[in-house]
Each structure stands twice: as C-alpha cells, then as structure tokens.
C-alpha cells in the first residue's frame, strides 16, 4: 500500500479521519517485531481506520555514554517495511518539531516504578520515555497505541501514565517476536558479531529455563491436587510413577516456587558468563508487572521474568510472562 511520509504534526492533523487511528511508536531501524506491531495495528484500526507509525530517535531516553549517535537511522527502509505491514502514514518529526525550543523544562516523572530494574540501570531513562510518549500521543491523537511486550517495564509505565493522567487512548501490548533460535528481535541485534550473538542466546535460554521449571512446578501442583489427602496418597503417587523420595508432590512443588524459577534461569546466565565473549549480567528479576517489585514465594497471579545483560558493547533485554498459583500454569 502507499504510505505517506509526514514531518509535522500540522500535516498529520490536516488528514481526514474516518475511523480509528492506531499508532505504533518506534525509533526506526524497523524489523519484523515492528512489522508485527503494525499488522496488529492494522487489524485494530480496520479497513476504514488509519495506522500511523512514528519514527523518532528520542534523545531524552539516552543516558551519558549510551548509543544515541550510533543508533541506526534507516528511514527509507523503514518506509518500505511500514508500508508492507499496512501503515498509512509514517510520521518522522525532527527534534525541533517534538521539542520546540530545545529539551523540555517540564517532563513526565516515571515515579518509583521507573527507578527499578531498567530505571536503576539507566537513571532518568523512563522519564525520557514517558515524556516523549506523552508528546507523541498528543501530536498523533490516536484512539489506540500499540507497544511490544519485550519492553515490559516500559509498557507497564505507559499504561500507568495513561491511567493516572487520564489520557483518552487504549494501550495494547503485543507479544515479543523472536528469531527461530529464540533471540528476541531488537534493533540493537545488528551490533552483535557472530560470536556475540551466540552468547546473547543465553538471555532467552535463561528465560526459557525458568519458564520450563515453572511449568514443571505447576504440573506437580496440579497432580497433587488430584491425589486424595488420605492414607492412599503415597500409593496413588507411586502409581503415577513418582519416586518414593518425592512421594508428596505438593511438598516438592511448594519447595520450588518463584525462587526455583530464578535459580534455573541464573544457572544459564552463570554459564554464559564463562563464554567467549562473556555475558555480563545487569539483572535477573521475577516481578509483579503492576509495580515491578520482586515477588515472594506465596505470590499468585501474573508475573514477569526479566533479564538484562551486555554482550560486548551491546546491551540487551528480554522477558517472559508467567502465571503463579490459582490462575494456572505458565503463559
């Protein structure tokens, strides 16, 4: 389809609107993960609606020594990818358009949640993210905005900002897109050498190990619930093929829990620290997505297992969703 490139909010506002406007915010260097977001936006907007993709490398979210200057800028290729995925408009404003008069004196504060994990590793990062998201929501005036779940903390903070500050927009999260080998798609993957990419697979490997450990625990809990709490319990468990040493499946499952998930994931990361080149861990966390605090052993509900690490000079993040206790097994 024909995709229109616009540089100013005035030009965007001048377009006739006949349906829902869905917005996908990016910093460019589009890949299949972005294309998945755009296709989801196309579905939500419908044939009568409009999909707008923003391309803006936001200086406010880069800290000192980070890769603002070398962040890839590939607008021609971005236009082609966006068009193929179903975008009607690519809105690529200049810094002066987004921040007239220079960096804004008034900014959005991410609050306590913005100081944890990514916020602790990159002070001020989420203030910059929320400030530009607020600006772009005002400039593009969407009905719905879509963000990738790979940036889980960012998505949670955007949802919180929209709720707390009464933005009139629906926020939709889209699942992480991965390479066939499990590596989460990221514009920064292009910085990795072949050897570094091999090491980087430990991020998804660790998450999958934690997820598998969690699934095994939930399966044990389910089997324990099915076994009568009577004298016949051991016999029933033995009939299921359980070893005598682990006859009480409920006790085995309870002894695992969130900490066992963390241990399983950390074992993979510890091994990758000895690779050539090595993986340098920033954090591994199992958190409540409502506030990104670590969950306890008695936690029930949705959680996020998140990791951030450096391979060479490239910093990567990834996560998987899990569900503990009464809500079911792994997502």
From TrEMBL:
Chain sites annotated for binding beta-alanine: 61
Protein name, entry field: Pantothenate synthetase
Subcellular location: Cytoplasm
InterPro entries: Pantoate_ligase, Pantoate_ligase_C, Rossmann-like_a/b/a_fold
SUPFAM superfamilies associated with the record: Nucleotidylyl transferase (SSF52374)
Miscellaneous comment text of the record: The reaction proceeds by a bi uni uni bi ping pong mechanism.
Pfam families: Pantoate_ligase
Recorded GO MF terms: pantoate-beta-alanine ligase activity
Active site location: 34
CDD domains with a match to the protein in the record: PanC
Pathway: Cofactor biosynthesis; (R)-pantothenate biosynthesis; (R)-pantothenate from (R)-pantoate and beta-alanine: step 1/1
Record bears the keyword Cytoplasm: yes
């Amino acid at each position: 389809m024909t995709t229109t490139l616009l540089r100013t909010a005035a030009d965007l506002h001048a377009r006739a609107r006949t349906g829902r406007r869905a917005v996908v915010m990016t910093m460019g260097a589009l890949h299949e993960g972005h294309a998945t977001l755009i296709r989801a936006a196309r579905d939500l907007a419908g044939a009568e609606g409009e999909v707008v993709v923003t391309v803006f490398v936001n200086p406010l979210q880069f800290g000192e020594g980070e890769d603002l200057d070398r962040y890839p800028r590939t607008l021609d290729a971005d236009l082609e990818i966006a068009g193929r995925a179903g975008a009607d408009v690519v809105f690529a404003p200049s810094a002066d358009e987004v921040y007239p008069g220079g960096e804004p004196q008034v900014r959005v504060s991410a609050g306590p949640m913005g100081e944890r994990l990514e916020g602790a590793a990159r002070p001020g990062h989420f203030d910059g993210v929320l400030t530009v998201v607020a600006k772009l929501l005002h400039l593009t005036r969407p009905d719905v905005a879509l963000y990738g779940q790979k940036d889980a903390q960012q998505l949670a903070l955007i949802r919180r900002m929209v709720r707390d500050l009464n933005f009139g927009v629906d926020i939709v999260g889209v699942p992480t897109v991965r390479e066939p080998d499990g590596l989460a798609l990221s514009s920064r993957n292009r910085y990795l050498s072949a050897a570094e990419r091999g090491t980087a697979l430990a991020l998804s490997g660790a998450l999958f190990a934690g997820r598998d450990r969690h699934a095994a625990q939930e399966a044990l809990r389910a089997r324990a619930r099915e076994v009568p709490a009577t004298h016949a319990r051991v016999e029933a468990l033995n009939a299921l093929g359980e070893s005598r040493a682990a006859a009480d499946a409920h006790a085995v499952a309870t002894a695992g829990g969130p900490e066992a998930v963390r241990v399983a994931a950390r074992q993979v990361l510890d091994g990758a620290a000895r690779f050539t080149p090595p993986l340098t861990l920033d954090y591994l966390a199992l958190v409540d997505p409502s506030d990104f605090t670590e969950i306890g052993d008695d936690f029930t509900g949705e959680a996020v297992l998140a990791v951030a690490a450096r391979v060479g000079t490239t910093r990567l993040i990834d996560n998987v969703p899990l569900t503990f206790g009464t809500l079911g097994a792994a997502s």
